[in-house]
């Protein structure tokens, strides 16, 4: 890039990494990775996601995991790229562990969010309660979702949607 007079930034690096992944050109990807470190973009989600993807597509799961682990705030794309990279490369057990880490983070986030809702006195707002019920339902925290449902003056379908989703997902699971 620089030899051609193009000033690199995180967006151009992201495009270059996406192309390197599509072409399977590991050497280009590694060169870009070293430039990311040199220019201090190595923790940016916008470049880490395609970097995880590139390393995974080239079969370098350890390198992909190292990029993922150095991220301070991985987003949904980061988590999905890491899980997909692990699965594609035959690391199913590790993929399940990463997926569970994400779920644990979601539960922790839901609890923190609930605390803020109570602290800021939004706990009586029906839309806020419904949103929290949905989060708890997706995390299989049905007891917490039901407790919120019980506090509502005029209950809506939020809890029933959570319950329906959980029952449906349990029915869809293969029996052992």
Automatic annotation (TrEMBL):
Stored Gene3D superfamilies = Tetratricopeptide repeat domain
Task: List the PANTHER family.
Answer: PENTATRICOPEPTIDE REPEAT-CONTAINING PROTEIN
**Keywords from the UniProt entry:** Repeat
Which species is the source of this protein? Canna indica (Indian-shot)
Pfam families per the record?
A: PPR
What name is this protein filed under?
Answer: Pentatricopeptide repeat-containing protein
Q: Tell me yes or no: is Heme among this UniProt entry's keywords.
A: no
Q: Where are the PPR repeats?
A: 44-78
* Coiled-coil region: none
Please give a single GO biological process term from the UniProt record. Answer: RNA modification
Gene Ontology MF, one: RNA binding
């Amino acid at each position: 890039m620089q030899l051609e007079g193009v000033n690199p930034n995180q967006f151009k690096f992201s495009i270059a990494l996406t192309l390197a992944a599509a072409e399977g050109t590991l050497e280009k990807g590694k060169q870009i990775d070293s430039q990311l470190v040199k220019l201090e973009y190595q923790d940016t989600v916008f470049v880490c996601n395609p970097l995880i993807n590139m390393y995974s597509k080239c079969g370098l799961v350890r390198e992909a995991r190292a990029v993922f682990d150095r991220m301070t705030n991985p987003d949904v794309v980061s988590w999905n790229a890491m899980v997909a990279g692990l699965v594609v490369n035959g690391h199913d057990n590790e993929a399940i562990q990463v997926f569970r880490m994400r779920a644990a983070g979601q539960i922790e986030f839901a609890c923190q969010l609930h605390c803020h809702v109570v602290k800021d006195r939004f706990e009586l707002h029906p839309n806020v309660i419904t949103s929290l019920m949905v989060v708890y339902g997706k995390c299989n925290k049905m007891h917490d979702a039901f407790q919120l449902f019980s506090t509502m003056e005029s209950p809506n379908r939020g809890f029933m949607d959570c319950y329906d989703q959980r029952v449906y997902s349990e029915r869809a699971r293969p029996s052992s």
